[in-house]
Design goal:
Strand content: under 5%
Radius of gyration: 23 Å
Shape: elongated
Structural class: mainly alpha
Oligomer: single chain
Number of domains: 2
Strand order of the largest sheet: 1-4
Low-confidence stretches: 7-16, 107-127
Length: 248
């Protein structure tokens, strides 16, 4: 795909005849194509320097038609090409210089192809822990979204305020699902199912953990991992079965 520069006002300015609109109006214009976009997302993109709306004397954001078009282009490059914001910003700067920009073909995230890990540990992120600011930056979400995930019990910080590998993985998946319009309230059923599955695993493993033999207690951890892996694979198979032939 080739992006070519368009004529018109430079970023941050607009012809006098073009009306400036509020962030709520921008959200309404983008929602048809990007139903997952939120006001927090728009604010985050502004904070990252990808759009520069005007400000009224009282501090309210006002967006020009060029700003809205620019936001749509950013969201499209994220959705269709999975480009990081740094690369998107470089592409936009190149377009502003009058250059043509070649984009990779639309890609599908391999994680969307029914992942069935042999071991739950296979899906762990490389970073052991992330601070709150690091997590927000890595996921490209705003504080409001992260706080909402926490309010629904989907993720939780450790005592020192950081997030362990499991929490980071869950946060990434919640963010990915959000691209398809699934909100935290929709994911409560998944969390409840996971807790029930964990309870079943614990029933099997608990007697092993209480055993006097140290080797048997050590075996409990291996058994937990194996059961967790089987549970994940069963869950994926059951969802495929429930959806029938629509996945084939």
């Amino acid at each position: 795909m080739l992006l070519t520069p368009k004529g018109g006002a430079e970023r941050g300015t607009a012809p006098a005849a073009d009306p400036l609109v509020s962030i709520g109006a921008v959200l309404g214009r983008l929602r048809d194509e990007f139903p997952e976009v939120t006001i927090s997302k728009i604010r985050f993109l502004e904070a990252e320097g990808l759009v520069e709306p005007r400000r009224t004397p009282s501090g309210y954001r006002k967006f020009s038609p060029e700003d809205v078009e620019r936001l749509g282009l950013v969201l499209r490059m994220q959705r269709d090409h999975y480009l990081p914001l740094k690369v998107i910003k470089e592409h936009l700067e190149a377009l502003a210089r009058g250059e043509q920009v070649a984009l990779p073909g639309p890609q599908r995230d391999r994680r969307d192809v029914w992942p069935v890990p042999e071991d739950p540990a296979d899906d762990q992120p490389t970073a052991a822990r992330l601070g709150r600011a690091e997590l927000l930056a890595a996921l490209e979400v705003g504080e409001d979204e992260l706080a909402e995930w926490e309010s629904y019990g989907l993720i939780a910080a450790l005592e020192d305020g950081s997030y362990d590998a499991d929490a980071v993985t869950v946060a990434r998946l919640v963010a990915d699902l959000g691209r398809f319009g699934l909100e935290p309230r929709h994911l409560r059923v998944m969390k409840a199912a996971a807790e029930r599955e964990a309870g079943l695993v614990e029933q099997v493993v608990a007697p092993l953990r209480r055993h006097r033999n140290p080797q048997t207690r050590a075996h409990a951890e291996a058994t937990t991992r194996e059961l967790a892996g089987l549970s994940v694979r069963l869950h994926a198979a059951l969802v495929r079965t429930a959806l029938g032939g629509r996945l084939h």
